[in-house]
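Translate structure to sequence.
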């Protein structure tokens, strides 16, 4: 139970105390209605039980006042229960989503790589929505309802043990049926959640690939993976609803039959002369009041079980280990060293024993065939992924010992695949330095050769870009990404084919800007067009996850090895043209 409370509340179980307390008091006070109603009935039938007895109107008045007082207190606690329950439910869910998003930011990219693309979205949306509903509509009532089967038999046993046993004799059988349904729910619920995640992933894939679908004139109905995912979700949903419903209906039917058992037992004992009619009436009144909330508690158990499964999925993400480290970056300079580094995205290794050095305040270019691991090196330097063997040192310090935020604070990255948020151009550039003044942002844009096209837009810097920057061209997105790097002005620059999406004129201007950006900085640049890095101080040539050559452009050209072959191939491809034949 403690783990359940911890998971449901996102690690804040104390936030559930007031909702449960006030709901329990509300439920308990409402029980006084039945108690005072019973006293009124007993008072009214006194003359029937004993001729000569008269009705005590003083007692009747007190009992009626008791009902009024119960109504006032029940209203008070109902209002408090409503306020605290809904406030806690939605606050916990909102805080939980924010904290989970912050936690995700601190996880290595390997965590995301190992999951379906729709899994995290399903957790943030579906699982938290389920928790909101459970905490606001189910949990407090369920906890309050648990008191009924615990306290009521004990209290009624003081009146008549036989009748108390008869009333609750069916409860163990109902609980056994619920236990059996719980076991099925755990298995089928896992299958249903997996189907939901698969649907979310396939839908993302379908929408992201819409351009390809249209280009190939492929109808949506022919997208088999999405169709199969939705059909599978339909079958899993029907299976769990149809499979659990008989257990639930049977459990509630068995539970409610306890009232019938109690009536039969009462009539039998009354005929035998061992039960007073007032006791039978008391049990009838209480029984009529108790079985409805008991049934509601039993039904809500399934909902609570689903919520518990969602809470465990959220907790599994919240407890995923974040990148560790506590040291500062740059104390020993900004030279970067790879020592016997081993890494792979899956079972196959990208690197097995990679060793090389990147000097500080110099430009190092990394070239090689596709798939040789060039972009992976940049990801490992930024610690987006953790090395599996060996170590990477910055200024002589293992980057695993550096606080991740401090490490990234000293690195500016320009990716080959630029992503812009659905926000203004101004805010997309400002990500590079959150406290930057407008003048700094505009100056960074000028250096990145994007100020002119930004000011030509109708809203200028306040122009909204589509999701991922879809309303801008590839070259425009690339230059905005470079403006971020100019604005951040970090001592380490990582450029992953930064000019790939630019035309010849913009590339020339941007090369000049990059030359200004990288002066006196440790720069690692990946380039497929070798002409753009021929002036680099150091060029590392990769092949099959290993350094096969290293040196200046002139040295590598004289080696007559892989670099020279790549250069010659690019020279030949530069002369390629489409012919009529």
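Result:
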């Amino acid at each position: 139970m403690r783990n359940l409370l911890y998971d449901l509340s996102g690690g804040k179980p104390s936030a559930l105390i007031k909702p449960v307390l006030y709901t329990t008091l509300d439920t308990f006070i409402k029980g006084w209605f039945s108690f005072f109603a019973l006293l009124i009935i007993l008072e009214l039938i006194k003359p029937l039980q004993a001729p000569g007895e008269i009705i005590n109107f003083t007692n009747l008045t007190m009992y009626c006042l008791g009902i009024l007082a119960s109504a006032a207190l029940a209203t008070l606690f109902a209002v408090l229960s409503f306020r605290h329950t809904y406030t806690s439910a939605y606050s916990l869910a909102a805080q939980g989503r924010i904290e989970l998003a912050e936690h995700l930011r601190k996880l290595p990219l390997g965590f995301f790589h190992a999951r379906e693309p729709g899994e995290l979205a399903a957790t943030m949306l579906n699982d938290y929505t389920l928790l909101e509903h459970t905490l606001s509509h189910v949990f407090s009532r369920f906890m309050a309802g648990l008191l009924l089967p615990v306290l009521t038999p004990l209290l009624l046993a003081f009146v008549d043990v036989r009748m108390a046993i008869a009333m609750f004799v069916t409860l163990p059988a109902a609980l056994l049926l619920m236990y059996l349904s719980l076991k099925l729910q755990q298995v089928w619920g896992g299958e249903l959640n997996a189907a939901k995640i698969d649907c979310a992933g396939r839908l993302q894939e379908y929408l992201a690939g819409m351009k390809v679908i249209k280009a190939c004139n492929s109808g949506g109905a022919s997208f088999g993976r999405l169709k199969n995912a939705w059909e599978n979700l339909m079958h899993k949903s029907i299976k769990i609803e149809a499979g659990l419903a008989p257990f639930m209906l049977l459990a509630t039917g068995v539970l409610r039959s306890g009232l019938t058992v109690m009536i039969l037992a009462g009539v039998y004992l009354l005929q035998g002369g061992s039960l007073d009619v007032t006791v039978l009436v008391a049990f009838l009144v209480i029984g009529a009041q108790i079985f409805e909330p008991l049934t509601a508690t039993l039904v809500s158990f399934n909902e609570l079980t689903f919520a518990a499964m969602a809470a465990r999925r959220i907790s599994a993400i919240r407890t995923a280990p974040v990148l560790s480290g506590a040291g500062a970056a740059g104390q020993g300079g900004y030279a970067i060293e790879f020592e016997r580094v081993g890494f792979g995205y899956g079972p196959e290794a990208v690197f097995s024993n990679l060793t090389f050095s990147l000097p500080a305040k110099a430009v190092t270019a990394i070239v090689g065939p596709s798939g040789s691991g060039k972009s992976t090196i940049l990801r490992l330097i930024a610690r987006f992924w953790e090395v599996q063997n060996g170590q990477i040192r910055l200024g002589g310090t293992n980057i695993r010992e550096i606080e991740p935020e401090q490490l990234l604070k000293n690195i500016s990255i320009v990716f080959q695949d630029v992503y812009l948020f659905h926000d203004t151009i101004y805010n997309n550039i400002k990500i590079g330095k959150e406290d930057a003044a407008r003048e700094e942002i505009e100056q960074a844009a000028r250096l990145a050769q994007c100020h002119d096209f930004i000011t030509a837009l109708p809203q200028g810097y306040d122009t909204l870009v589509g999701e991922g920057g879809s309303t801008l061209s590839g070259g425009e997105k690339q230059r905005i990404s470079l403006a971020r790097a100019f604005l951040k002005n970090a001592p380490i620059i990582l450029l992953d084919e930064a000019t790939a999406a630019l035309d010849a004129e913009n590339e020339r201007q941007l090369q000049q800007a990059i030359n200004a950006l990288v002066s006196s900085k440790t720069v690692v640049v990946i380039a497929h067009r070798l002409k753009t890095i021929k002036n680099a101080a150091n060029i590392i040539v990769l092949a099959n996850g290993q350094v096969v050559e290293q040196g200046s452009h002139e040295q590598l050209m004289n080696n007559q090895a892989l670099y020279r072959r790549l250069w010659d191939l690019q020279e030949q491809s530069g002369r390629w043209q489409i012919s009529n034949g």
